[in-house]
Amino acid sequence: MSADGNNAFPCTIELVEPIGSEMYIHLKAGELSLVATVKSDYSVRPGQTLMIRLNAAKLHLFDPKSQYNLIRPE
């Protein structure tokens, strides 16, 4: 996740889940739902809007029905 740079797009934070040294940030961008994993010292809160940019090397896409990973099938 990046707050700046080319190809960034706005997302609204719906939920923040602390999980030890990291946290899951549940995001909405229009109809698209995303979950980002970030370090727990990243300061965010539900309702906040972020400009994010995706790292293709770390991206996972899942089929909403089967929940299979579409990029790295097992």
CATH class, named Mainly Beta
Envelope shape: globular
Which class of secondary structure composition applies to the elements?
A: mainly beta
The mean pLDDT is 86
Could you tell me the radius of gyration in angstroms? 13 Å
Cα distance, first to last residue? 25 Å
User: Which stretches are low in confidence, meaning pLDDT under 50 for 5 or more residues running?
Assistant: none
Total of domains: 1
Structure overview:
This protein is mainly beta and 74 residues long. It has a single domain, classed as Nucleic acid-binding proteins (OB fold (Dihydrolipoamide Acetyltransferase, E2P)). It is built from no helices and four strands. The chain has a four-stranded antiparallel β-sheet, with no helix packed on it. It starts with 8 loop residues before the first strand and ends in a 22-residue tail after the last strand. The model has no long low-confidence stretch (mean pLDDT 86).
